[in-house]
Design a protein that fits this description.
Layout: H1 6-13, E1 19-23, H2 30-39, E2 46-50, E3 60-63, H3 69-75, H4 84-94, E4 104-105, E5 114-117, E6 138-141, E7 145-149, E8 156-159, E9 162-167, E10 170-174, H5 180-190, E11 195-200, H6 205-211, H7 221-229, E12 234-237, E13 244-246, E14 251-265, E15 280-292, E16 297-299, H8 309-328, E17 334-339, E18 348-353, H9 360-370, H10 372-375, E19 380-385, H11 393-403, H12 406-409, E20 410-417, E21 426-428, E22 431-441, H13 459-468
Parallel strand pairs: 1-2, 3-16, 4-12, 18-19, 19-22
Antiparallel strand pairs: 2-3, 5-15, 6-9, 7-8, 7-11, 9-10, 10-15, 11-14, 12-13, 14-15, 17-18, 20-22, 21-22
Helix pairs in contact: 4-8, 6-7
Amino acid sequence: MPVKDLREWLSRIDSPAELQRIKGADWNLEIGALTELMQQRAPVPALLFDEIPGYPKGYRVLTNVCSSIPRLAFSLEAPGAKKAMDLISHWRKSSKDIPLIPPVEVQNGSVMENVHLGKDVNLLEFPAPKWHEADGGRYIGTGCLVVMKDPDSGWINVGTYRVMTVDEQRATLYMSKGKHCHQIREKYWKKGQPCPVAVVMGQDPLLFINASMELPYGVCEYDYAGGLRKQPVEIIRGPITGLPVPAHAEIVIEGTITEGDIAPEGPFGEWTGYYASGVKDEAVIRVQSVLHRNDPILMGACPCKPPSEQTFYRGPIRSAIIWDQLEAAGIPGIAGVWVHEAGAGRMLLIVSINQKYAGHSRQAGLVASQCHGGAYASKCVIVVDDDVDITNTNEVLWAALTRCDPAEDVEILKKCWSTILDPTAYYKDGGLYNSRMVIDACRPYGKLGSFPAVLGPEKELVDRLKDKFAGLF
């Protein structure tokens, strides 16, 4: 059964392997560093920080929520999933033709236990971490939901963007150009109006996962989550903006963003593993209301050098999305898709195919590099035959080194969709772009029958030996 809120999620995953409680870590660097250090081990537990110096006991920070297969499987309702490919298979099945179930509005919710309006607003009430040493400030919004309403259609969009605390009543909101909330904000500004916004910090992790996905323009993430859960998300209306927010969220802030109202933002250590965006003036949220539960839990998703939490939840889901989009584009014979953790869930994509015709492998690689799920900030696509385990880095590199001729089998694409978070992105003709490489690491189609045979024991022998010498395995 789906969980109602973050607290029910915590109670249902609570075991020493999945959740560690830490007392006394400081918001200034210690929470961020511990989060990052734990991401470098396996398995990675979720971390719940309490008794943070300078804050009341019970004002907590939760990190590494989506950093393990068991927790992802629980959040996505994928019982029995043991590895990433299991999650990919589950997502492809569960997300196909799901009904969009709109949220249901309720009269009251746990998030209304404390309501602060106007001059009573104080963002510094919460122990927002300074995650990395060179960060330009404390980031209250990392594992958050940013809620906006399209002024023309009424479509509610729920995305994930970074939010930096400026002072008691101001925060900056950083959004890459082209993202849905950025498009909505621009619509308000073109009308000469401030853009209403709500930011949610602490919610059912499924909502966070959905907000981080590339859903089609016009599809509401609440509706999509309702379809996946087979029951509607409970929402209430924010008292200032009227925007729908989860009724049992931990913390919600509301306000408006006015064109020209800016403050310095960044730098911030991001998912590419760099402080790539520097310091820039970004739009300010003038916060007019803060809602929170008693003893609130601020949910954070701390970016760091891969592998990180982003690679854990982005990899399987984006792999499934791209696989579906390849098939929807008419590409036959797709045997697997894997968004590799080294590329932070975006920059390195591996596709395996069962070759059907000359040019098939090149077609698959080029389409994968440009379909919606794979286009943003991608840097490299490697296409391999279906005898290669795409989740095994050594096998993928072996195929790239033995089946690819660099002069014939590497394509370079220029002026592709990118982000300033990519250290090699470049400006040209007024736009920000990157280049990307498609590596055809499949056996040449014309030599499928004559290409040298792969060395290794036959599967039947391997199975017999594993049975006969089970103690070795």
